Amino acid sequence: MDCKHFGSCGSCSLYALDYEAQLTHKVSRVKGLLAPFFVGELEVFSSPDSHYRARAEFRIWHEGNRCDYAMGNIDRNGAVNIEECPKVIESIDKRMWPLLEKINLSSEVLKKKLFAVEFLATTTDECLITMLYHRKLDETWSHEAKLIEKALDCKIMGRSRKQKVILSDEFVTETLHIDDKDFHYIQYESGFTQPNPAVNVKMIEWAIRQAKKIAKGDFLEAYCGLGNFTLPLSRYFDKVLATEISKRSIHAALKNCELNGIDNIVFARLASEEMTEALQGVREFSRLKGIDLKSYDFTTVLVDPPRAGLDEGTIGLISNIENIIYISCNPETLARDLEILTQTHEVAEAAIYDQFPHTGHVESGVFLQKK
After folding, report:
1. What band does 106 get if pLDDT is binned at 50, 70 and 90?
2. Is 304 labelled a binding residue?
3. 142, 172, 202 — which closes off a domain?
4. 172, 201, 235: which is the final residue of a domain?
5. Is position 194 annotated in a ligand binding site?
6. pLDDT tens digits, one per residue of 119-161
7. Residues recognised as catalytic
8. Most exposed: 63, 102, 335, 346, by fewest CB within 10 Å?
């Protein structure tokens, strides 16, 4: 990828290295962290070099009567106006610049006190644009936004303090071809989604390869989100219990289960600590009414925690399950958690997934089996 803003925009911090050098650096870093626990070869899943990001947010910088997109600068002490962003997928790229032009040339209403624009798009050319304001939005705003929505063939929402204006939908529907099958995912504007669809598919298929080695019993998942891993992996288990704390994500997961005709998954709104308490019989939760936890025979668990990694209780719980698939967005906390998990399990497979090219961020995964 080549971008005129390399070296000034803080979004891409590894601009001085070509992509292969970036990947080599990330592999070396993760290998070093996993060395005490894994002696095999890391599988490496690279990203497209450009047009890979399906979710993006840009500040709006006002200068005179003009608006421009802006990002934090490389020194983290200000912002830089941008004229291109080749990392966003094409369904965003083809709309973000006409949107800015229309706002600047023909709409004082849409421009007034606009401070950011968020894009959520799919590989099938759907795009949801959320415009954020420091003022209340009225019918005039809705009228002008609808005209742009039609012109750009997209969905537009407006947000301001305690206000959300939905013109058509507040979601997009992504279709990903995973494991020789199409899976459909409703993705909401305020919910978490994996930002790099191409690498996301590779990541899910890596997890499926591990699941196929087991292909029996029941499956437990923590931090399931909208069902990103849950839906494709459910094909290889009898019953699935998936937990997530976000109401919006659970709502999307239930919709996605219905959309894909999957009937062996139960979603429960629980934090990981609550999941541990429920499964160990420490507490009862009204949210689990009608779910017979004792009927599950978990042979496999998948965890995809936030950067802080797993809490002590969850580590204790999953240490009793035969197979563990651990997806991590922070290799340092993964290595920390493996110090405990490898007391009962051994790492059979490990991989990295480069969801964020041109940055130091890297996702990794390990498959552990009980000793």
Report:
1. confident
2. yes
3. 172
4. 172
5. yes
6. 999 999 999 999 999 999 999 999 999 999 999 999 999 999 9
7. 329
8. 63
